[in-house]
Amino acid sequence: MIERYTRPAMGAIWSEQNKYQCWLEVELAAADALVELGEVPTAAAADLRSHAGFTLARIHEIEREVRHDVIAFTTAVAEQMKAKSVGESSRWLHYGLTSNDVVDTAQALQLKGASRIISDGLAKLLGDLRESAFRYKHTLQIGRTHGIHAEPITFGLKVAIWYDEFRRHQVRFAAAAEEMRVGKISGAVGTFAHIGPEAEEKICTRLGLKAAPVTSQVLSRDLHANYVAVLAGIAGSLDKIALEIRHLQRTEVREAEEPFSAGQKGSSAMPHKRNPVTCEQISGLARVVRANAQAAFENVPLWHERDISHSSVERIILPDSTILIDYLLNKTSWLISGLQVKEARMRRNFDLTRGLVFSGQLLLDLAAAGMLREDAYRLVQSHAMKAWEEEGDFRAAIANEPRVSEYLDAEQLEASFSLTRQLRHVDDIFERVFNKT
Known about the structure:
The strands form three sheets. The chain has a two-stranded antiparallel ribbon. Strands 3-4 form a two-stranded parallel sheet. It is elongated and about 100 Å long. It is mostly helical. It has helices at 9-13, 16-36, 42-51, 56-66, 69-83, 99-135, 155-180, 197-206, 222-249, 277-298, 309-337, 343-350, 359-369, 373-390, 394-399, 402-405, 410-416, 419-422, 426-434, and strands at residues 140-145, 148-154, 182-183, 210-211, 256-257, 340-341. It folds into three domains: 9-92, Fumarase C, Chain B, domain 1 (Orthogonal Bundle), CATH 1.10.275; 99-349, Fumarase C, Chain A, domain 2 (Up-down Bundle); 356-416, Ribonucleotide Reductase Protein R1, domain 1, CATH 1.10.40. 64% of the residues lie in helices and 5% in strands.
């Protein structure tokens, strides 16, 4: 079961109350800008700024009749203006605008707020990853390819890869969020038939947005598709971290475990269970965000200057994707900062194959010493396969192999099985990852 989410800020951004409040902010910014251009009376704009408001209940009541949310909204605001004896000024509400001038621009305000929260979450996770990477910089671990023991790594290097990945996500997300910080007040087909580009610039500036260079009745949905695609990329990397920890927590491995509280229970039937439930939540919910990216791309093609096939989709995928990414970033930070890393178990697992993981270095050293590479490969592999099948001591077998001693003395053979030699560039890698410009 997903734990109760304790950060309500993101959910509040997508509440109906805030959505209509953003609509109202667009309407008020439009009125104020049009005052500057001499198209709306100053007193009317002042009345709108002082008295315009709404209730959700009345908007819902009107919408059930008119079946149009923007009309229901403007009608509810006009009614409230009338109730406050400034109904005459309400005729300047929504002046020169079409529905999507309000809806798309207000949605950009919501995404701007959501992006700020996600940016904070990315920064927090990067800090946690950096701290973990340095803590386990020299913690020996076996590297695995295809799930099979390969060559030595450190756990800190694994985390450094995650850090580097999320630095790229941070850059991508900042660009996508900035690209999405755009509004449009260009009218029913984008021609500024009723108010001009200068008004649009003023309105968007008041709202902290940029004016789109050109639009139809709607902002081009490649913007939204790119934004959700970047969120999907972030979700993929969060899943990558969770999946790795799930593998490391398997009973046969037990090199790392997600936090497990004192009173926590893993199974209704098996008291011994310590399941990676948070990691599994992260992996599962990441699939939803990635699936939403497909829907976002389907929204790009619309009929002519606009249809509303994208609208119903965005009412789901934009709140869901941003809320989920905020949640997943928060849970992954919790996971990394509290991760139980079993360093002794990592060493024990590393030693399981008794030197097999140095076969590559031995091959190179034999070739460098004069043995033909093909001959060296056959020789090393024959001993490796025997050690694999019989769970024997590969290093001992190599030390007793006359054909090896013809090329490598005891000191050279020791170097072939040296961990220090294998991991001598860890500091260099960290320098490149954490100190690069």
